[in-house]
C-alpha cells in the first residue's frame, strides 16, 4: 500500500520522538540528526508490519538488530526503544480501517516482543563476536610477543654460543648458571672446575688485590660493572689471562638479579707485551739489563728509604773498557761485539747478591749497581770482583785479548751517593771512572766530592764557552813590553779575559785548555787576533809617527791547537790586511812545548808567517825540554824567558846562579840573532840587573799590570815625555 | 630450547588497557573483566564519562569530514586504540574513497585487532609504535607506503596526549611530527582537562587515581599547556573549545536541554600547519 505525504510526515514525527528518547542511551558517534534519519526507515518498516495482511511480527526482529548496529548496545536503551513504539506507533502510523483498535494494540505489542528479541539476539551476537575478536587479537598479540621473544632469545643464544669472547652468567649469590663454549675453550675444558660452579671458586694467586672488593660491590648492587685483567688457572695448570668485564643485571624493580661476565683471552697479548717489555729493558747484544732498566732500579733504590735517605744504601760501579776503540779499529766491529759479549758474561757473574745488578749502558760502558744495607762496602767488593773477572785474557777466534777496564765507584766508604738524583750519581761515577783512566787504567777509583766539583765546574765552563764568544763575554787586556835599554814602551802582549756572568773575570789558564779541548780555540783565537790587530792599528793612529819609537807591536798568543789549524796563515794575513797593519807590528807567541818535536810540516805555517814579516816569539822558554841546537831551525826571532829564571833577581843582590844562566841564554840568543824578552819583572833592581845582562825587552808588574788599551797609550806618552 | 628465566614477560591480560577501557565506555565488548572493572570505577569517580567519550568520538568524526572537505585525505591517527563503530577509515573512505589512513598504537592487542579489522583494506594499515618515538612512526613501512608526506596530512591525536607525561616531553614528539608534515597539514587534538568544564578538579583527581592505579597515568592539562601543542599550527575556528562546541552539525545544538553537561569537559581543536 503506497504511503502518501501525510504518512511520510507522520513517520518523520514518530522517528523524531523515538530519536529524542533513545539517543541519550546510545553511544553512537552519529549526530542526533543522523540518528533520527537512521530511524526513519526503521519506523517505516514497523508501520508496514503493523498494517500487513496477513500479519507477521517476524520483521520487527530486524528493527532490534538494526538498532544494535547503530551502537544502541546499552540494555538500558531497550525500554526506551519499546516505550516509544508502545506509546506512539499506533498513534502516528495508524494501520487503517481494516483493523480494530484492539487488533492494532495487540499487533503493536507483538511487534515489540520481536523488536526486543531481535535486539537481544543481535546484542548477544555482537557481544560474542567482539569478545571473540578481542580474544583472538589478544592471543595473536601474545603469540606475536612470544615469537618476538623467541626470536630475541634465539638471537641471544646465537650470540652466546657463537661469541668469540667467553660469556658466563651467574646469579647474585655467585652460583654459575651457564658458560658458553668460547669460555670453556679458553679454560681448556671445565672439568677441573668441577667445584667451579661458584664464582668464588675462580680465584687465582695472582689476582690483583681489588678484584674481590669490586666483586662484592657489584653483587651488593653498589656498582653496575667493572673491568679488570684477571688470571685463571687452566686445567693443565697453565695461567689464562683475561680482560674481564662483569656487569650487573637487575630486575624491573632494580633489584640485583644476575651477573654476566665477558672474558677475552689476552694470554698471548700479555706474553708478547712482557717480551716487548723485557726487550725494552735489556740490551740486545749482551742480554744484560740496559740503560732503561738500570735507571729504573737506580731510581727505585734512591727513592727507597722512607725518610728519603735511600742513597746510603746504594753503590755504583761505572766500568769502561780501556782501549776498546783500538780493538774495534784494528779487529773490526764483529770482534769488538764478541768481546763485549764475553765481558758482559763475566761481569754478569760478578753480580751475586740479590741486590746487585750489572747493566750495559751502551758502547763499552757497563755499570754495576748494589743496593741494600751494606751497599757501601759491597760496591767496592763488586768493583774488585769485576776487575778480577776481566784479569784473564778473553779467547776470541784463536786470539787472546787482554781486557783492562777502569771503574769509578760511587757509594763505598765515601758515601757520596748521599741523597742525589740518579743522573748525578751516575755522573759522579763517570767522572771517577775517567780519573781511574787518567791514573793509568785497569783500576778503580772512589768518588771524591772535590774531584767531582772540579770536573763539574770544568764541564759547566766548557758548556758555556761557545755562547760566551757569541755574547761578547771576552775582552782583552794589554800588558806593556818595555825596551830595557831606554825604558820605552815597545808594544804590549794581548791577554784574553772572560767576564763570566757568574764567576766574574776568568784568566786564560782557566778556560784556554777547555777551549782547546773543544776546538773553540780556533774562533776564539781569531777573535783575539782581530781585536789585537785593530787595537795596534788604533795605537798607531794615536801616536802618529814617533820620531824614534817605531811602531808599537802587539803580541798575541797562539795555542798548539791553532798551530795545527790549516787556515792559520791565510786568516792571519786577512786579519792584518783588514786592520791595515804591517806584519812587523804583530808578534805571535808560541810555547816552547808546542814546538818540541815539531817536524818541518808542522813548522811550515810559522815559517810562512815569519817570511811575511810577522815576528815569532818562543814563549815560556826554558820550561820545556829544549834542544838548544834545535833553536837554529825554528822560524823564531825572540825568546821569551820564563819568569822562573829571573825570580832570583827580584832582590838585591841577585842570585848568582840565575844571573849566570840568564847571561848564558842571552849570549846564546844573541849569537843566534834572537832578541830576548823577560817576563815577570817586578822590581827596579831586577829590571836593572836584566838590562845589564843584555836582555832586550821586559814586561811585568814593575812596569804595568795588564790593563785596558788606553793605559798603554798613557804609558807611551809618559815615555815620550820623559 | 628452554626459555631463560630472566627473559621478559609477555602480555598480561589481567592488566587493564586504556584502549580496551575506552571501548568499554563506548559500549563495545572488545574488553575483558579487568578493563570493565577499571572502567566502572572510573565512571563511578567521574559520572558521565561514557558520554564524554561519545562526544569525543563524534568530534573525531566531524573533524575527519572537515579534513576531507578541506582537501586533506591522508590520516595519521596516533593512539587509535580498538577499532569500533565509526572508525576513521570508515568515515574518511565514505567521504573520499581515495582516503588513506595509518593507525598507530602501542598496545599489542589493539594492534592485533586493528590488523584483523583492516585485513583486505589496502588503503589503511596499523603500525605498532609509540607516540613517544615519533621517528619510528615516521620511518615505518606503512607510513612510507600509504602517506605522501609532501601533501597535507591530518594528524589525529585524539584522547592520547593526556597519557603522555611531561617527563616524556610530548611537545617535542609533536614537534618532530609537525616538522615532517607538509604545510597545510592538520592537527586534530582532544585532551582531558577540568579547566573551564562543569566538573571540579577534585572529580578529575578521582578518575586520575583510577588510571594511576592501573599504571596508565592520566593527565589533566591546563588550557595554556594544551595550546602549546599547537606550536607551529594555526588554530582554525572556533579555536580550542569543548568538544561539542567544535563546529556542531547544523541540526545539533550543543546546549540541548537533555544533554549531560559533562560533555563540556576537556579541550578540542584543529590546527593548520603554516
Automatic annotation (TrEMBL), chain B:
Pfam families assigned to the protein according to its UniProt record, in alphabetical order: Methyltransf_19
Signal peptide region: none
Superkingdom of this protein's organism: Bacteria
Gene3D superfamilies per record: Vaccinia Virus protein VP39
SUPFAM superfamilies noted in UniProt: S-adenosyl-L-methionine-dependent methyltransferases (SSF53335)
Record-given protein name: Methyltransferase
Amino acid at each position: 500500500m503506497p504511503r502518501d505525504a501525510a504518512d511520510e510526515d507522520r513517520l518523520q514525527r514518530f522517528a523524531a520522538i523515538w530519536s529524542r528518547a533513545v539517543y541519550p542511551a546510545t553511544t553512537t558517534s552519529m549526530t542526533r540528526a543522523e540518528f533520527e534519519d537512521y530511524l526513519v526507515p526503521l519506523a517505516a518498516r514497523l508501520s508496514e508490519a503493523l498494517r500487513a495482511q496477513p500479519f507477521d511480527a517476524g520483521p520487527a526482529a530486524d528493527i532490534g538488530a538494526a538498532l544494535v548496529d547503530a551502537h544502541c548496545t546499552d540494555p538500558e536503551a531497550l525500554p526506551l526503544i519499546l516505550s516509544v513504539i508502545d506509546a506512539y506507533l499506533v498513534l502516528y502510523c495508524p494501520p487503517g480501517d481494516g483493523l480494530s483498535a484492539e487488533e492494532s494494540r495487540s499487533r503493536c505489542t507483538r511487534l515489540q516482543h520481536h523488536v526486543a528479541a531481535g535486539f537481544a539476539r543481535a546484542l548477544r551476537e555482537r557481544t560474542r563476536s567482539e569478545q571473540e575478536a578481542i580474544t583472538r587479537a589478544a592471543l595473536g598479540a601474545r603469540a606475536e610477543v612470544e615469537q618476538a621473544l623467541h626470536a630475541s632469545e634465539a638471537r641471544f643464544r646465537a650470540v652466546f654460543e657463537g661469541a668469540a669472547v667467553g660469556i658466563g652468567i651467574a646469579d647474585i649469590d655467585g652460583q654459575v648458571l651457564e658458560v658458553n663454549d668460547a669460555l670453556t675453550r679458553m679454560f681448556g675444558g671445565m672439568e677441573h672446575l668441577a667445584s667451579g660452579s661458584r664464582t668464588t671458586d675462580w680465584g687465582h694467586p695472582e689476582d690483583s688485590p681489588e678484584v674481590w672488593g669490586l666483586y662484592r660491590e657489584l653483587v651488593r648492587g653498589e656498582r653496575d660493572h667493572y673491568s679488570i685483567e684477571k688470571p685463571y688457572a687452566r686445567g693443565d695448570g697453565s695461567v689464562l689471562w683475561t680482560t674481564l668485564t662483569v656487569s650487573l643485571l637487575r630486575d624491573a624493580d632494580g633489584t640485583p638479579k644476575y651477573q654476566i661476565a665477558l672474558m677475552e683471552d689476552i694470554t698471548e697479548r700479555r706474553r708478547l707485551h712482557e717480551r716487548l717489555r723485557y726487550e725494552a729493558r735489556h740490551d740486545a747484544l749482551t742480554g744484560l739489563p740496559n740503560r732503561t732498566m738500570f735507571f729504573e732500579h737506580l731510581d727505585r733504590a734512591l727513592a727507597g728509604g722512607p725518610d728519603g735517605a735511600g742513597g746510603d744504601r746504594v753503590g755504583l760501579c761505572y766500568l769502561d773498557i780501556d782501549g776498546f776503540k783500538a780493538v774495534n779499529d784494528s779487529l773490526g766491529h764483529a770482534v769488538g761485539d764478541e768481546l763485549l759479549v764475553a765481558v758482559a758474561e763475566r761481569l754478569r757473574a760478578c753480580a751475586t747478591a740479590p741486590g746487585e745488578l750489572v747493566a750495559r749502558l751502551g758502547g763499552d760502558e757497563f755499570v754495576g749497581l748494589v743496593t741494600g744495607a751494606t751497599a757501601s762496602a759491597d760496591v767496592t767488593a763488586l768493583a774488585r770482583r769485576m776487575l778480577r773477572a776481566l784479569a784473564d785474557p778473553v779467547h776470541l777466534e784463536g786470539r787472546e785479548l787482554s781486557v783492562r777496564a777502569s771503574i769509578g765507584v760511587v757509594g763505598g766508604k765515601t758515601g757520596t751517593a748521599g741523597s742525589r738524583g740518579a743522573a748525578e750519581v751516575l755522573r759522579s761515577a763517570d767522572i771517577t771512572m775517567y780519573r781511574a783512566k787518567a791514573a793509568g787504567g785497569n783500576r778503580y777509583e772512589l768518588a771524591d766530592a772535590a774531584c767531582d766539583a772540579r770536573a763539574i765546574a770544568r764541564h759547566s765552563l766548557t758548556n758555556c764557552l761557545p755562547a760566551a764568544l757569541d755574547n761578547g763575554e771576552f775582552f782583552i787586556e794589554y800588558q806593556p813590553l818595555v825596551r830595557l835599554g831606554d825604558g820605552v814602551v815597545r808594544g804590549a802582549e794581548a791577554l784574553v779575559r772572560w767576564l763570566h756572568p757568574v764567576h766574574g773575570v776568568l784568566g786564560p789558564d782557566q778556560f784556554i785548555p777547555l777551549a782547546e779541548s773543544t776546538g773553540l780555540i780556533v774562533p776564539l783565537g781569531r777573535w783575539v787576533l782581530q781585536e789585537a790587530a785593530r787595537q795596534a792599528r788604533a795605537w798607531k793612529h794615536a801616536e802618529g809617527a814617533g820620531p824614534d819609537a817605531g811602531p808599537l807591536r802587539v803580541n798575541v798568543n797562539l795555542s798548539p791547537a791553532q798551530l795545527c789549524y790549516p787556515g792559520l796563515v791565510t786568516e792571519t794575513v786577512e786579519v792584518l790586511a783588514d786592520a791595515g797593519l804591517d806584519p812587523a807590528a804583530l808578534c805571535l807567541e808560541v810555547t816552547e812545548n808546542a814546538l818540541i818535536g815539531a817536524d818541518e810540516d808542522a813548522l811550515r805555517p810559522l815559517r810562512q808567517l815569519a817570511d811575511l814579516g810577522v815576528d815569532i816569539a818562543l814563549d815560556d822558554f826554558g820550561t820545556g825540554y829544549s834542544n838548544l841546537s834545535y833553536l837554529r831551525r825554528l822560524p823564531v826571532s825572540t825568546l821569551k824567558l820564563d819568569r822562573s829564571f829571573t825570580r832570583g833577581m827580584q832582590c838585591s843582590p841577585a842570585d848568582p846562579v840565575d844571573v849566570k844562566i840568564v847571561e848564558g841564554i842571552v849570549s846564546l840568543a844573541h849569537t843566534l840573532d834572537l832578541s830576548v824578552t823577560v817576563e815577570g819583572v817586578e822590581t827596579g833592581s831586577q829590571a836593572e840587573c836584566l838590562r845589564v845582562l843584555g836582555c832586550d825587552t821586559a814586561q811585568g808588574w814593575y812596569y804595568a799590570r795588564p790593563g785596558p788599551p788606553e793605559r798603554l797609550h798613557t804609558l807611551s806618552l809618559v815615555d815620550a815625555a820623559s | 630450547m628452554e626459555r631463560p628465566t630472566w627473559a621478559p614477560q609477555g602480555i598480561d591480560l589481567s592488566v587493564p588497557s586504556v584502549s580496551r577501557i575506552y571501548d568499554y565506555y563506548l559500549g563495545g565488548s572488545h574488553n575483558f573483566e579487568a578493563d570493565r572493572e577499571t572502567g566502572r570505577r572510573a565512571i563511578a569517580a567521574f559520572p558521565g564519562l561514557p558520554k564524554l567519550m561519545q562526544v569525543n568520538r563524534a568530534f573525531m568524526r566531524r573533524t575527519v569530514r572537515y579534513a576531507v572537505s578541506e582537501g586533506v585525505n591522508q590520516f595519521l591517527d596516533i593512539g587509535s586504540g580498538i577499532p569500533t563503530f565509526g572508525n576513521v577509515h570508515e568515515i574518511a573512505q565514505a567521504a573520499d574513497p581515495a582516503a588513506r589512513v595509518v593507525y598507530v598504537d602501542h598496545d599489542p592487542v589493539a594492534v592485533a585487532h586493528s590488523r584483523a579489522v583492516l585485513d583486505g583494506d589496502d588503503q589503511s594499515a596499523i603500525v605498532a609504535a609509540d607516540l613517544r618515538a615519533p621517528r619510528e612512526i615516521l620511518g615505518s613501512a606503512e607510513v612510507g607506503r600509504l602517506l605522501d608526506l609532501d601533501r597535507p596530512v591530518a594528524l589525529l591525536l585524539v584522547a592520547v596526549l593526556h597519557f603522555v607525561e611531561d617527563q616524556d616531553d610530548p611537545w617535542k614528539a609533536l614537534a618532530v611530527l609537525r616538522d615532517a608534515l607538509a604545510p597545510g597539514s592538520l592537527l586534530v587534538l582532544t585532551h582531558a582537562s577540568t579547566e573551564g568544564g562543569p566538573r571540579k578538579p577534585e572529580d578529575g583527581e578521582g578518575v586520575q587515581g583510577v588510571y594511576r592505579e592501573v599504571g596508565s597515568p592520566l593527565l589533566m592539562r591546563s588550557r595554556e599547556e594544551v595550546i602549546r601543542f599547537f606550536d607551529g599550527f594555526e588554530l582554525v575556528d572556533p579555536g580550542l573549545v569543548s568538544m561539542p562546541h567544535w563546529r556542531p552539525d547544523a541540526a545539533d545544538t550543543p546546549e540541548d536541554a537533555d544533554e549531560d553537561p559533562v560533555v563540556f569537559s576537556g579541550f578540542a581543536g584543529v590546527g593548520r600547519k603554516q
